[in-house]
Amino acid sequence: MKKVFISTTTFAQEDPSILQGLAKAGIMYTLNLHQRRLNEAEITEILVKGGYIGLLAGLEPLTKSVLTQAKNLKVISRVGVGIDNVDVLAAKKFGIKVYNTPGVLTDTVAELTLGLMLAALRKISLQDRQMHQGSWDKKMGALLKGKTVGIVGFGQIGMRVADLALAFGAKIILTDLRKIKKAKTKQVGLAQLIKSADIISLHCSGKDCVLGDKEINAAKQGVIIVNTARGQLIDEAALLNGLSSGKIASAALDVFEQEPYQGELCKHEHVILTPHIGSYAKEARIMMEKDAVANLIKGLMGKS
Fold first, then answer.
1. 276 carries an active-site annotation
2. Fewest 10 Å CB contacts: which of 70, 172, 235, 304?
3. Is the separation of the CB atoms in 166 and 172 below 8 Å?
4. Cα distances (angstroms) measured from residue 158 to each of 161, 235, 287
5. Cα–Cα–Cα angle for 58, 63, 69, nearest 5°?
6. Which of 37, 276, 285, 289 is an active site residue?
7. pLDDT, tens digit, for every residue of 83-128?
């Protein structure tokens, strides 16, 4: 029987039949008992000691070192879109097939992004906390209509965010490595986007920092920053400095370089934090997990 490790922490909670499908396919699976993202040492130890041939992967670092030691591993099936946590070149060298589930998370991440924008503009989280503490203190907010939303990374999710924001009457500027032609949007360079946007929304992949001290200092006074992409895209110290100075009016974050996150941003009243729930819409989660399992089985059967 083929042995597979499932590293994501909530796999099949919404639809247990997904696990039954693995069993029917002759696959023995083991769940992540840590109930959090695994670090490099942990995933290495699990894959090596378990002798797993397949991995239903989350965002744990699947580096060259990990893949070198996991000699039985033949298939990595990401339960998600991004594969920047996987050393794809090393995987290719060792004959490990790598799959992901593109398109499944477009609506769920885009809708969360829009919700975070609206929450930041209308100070919903802050006023909710104050109400729960017995305070009736009305805060003046602002409309999304008429605001310039700068979208960094214009893939499927960034494009869907643009559609939703346009429906509210926002103006859209974007930056992307590719040449983009889309009605009612304007493509600009990153520096111009940062200077012009009332709201900066990050939807790019990669591990490089996009917003550091230099970029935040160049942004509009009172800018709102939303990140539902990758935690490392923002320098946390620079973000805190911008919040403290008032340059940044509010930040809304769903992703963090270290997760679970318990840093200084938790103490700031103008920061909205969610625990990496971009994929946590029931319908999307089930579809994503089913697709990941289908990819895993396809890979284990030797199909390309």
1. yes
2. 304
3. yes
4. 5, 21, 20
5. 105
6. 276
7. 999 999 999 999 999 999 988 999 999 999 999 999 999 999 999 9
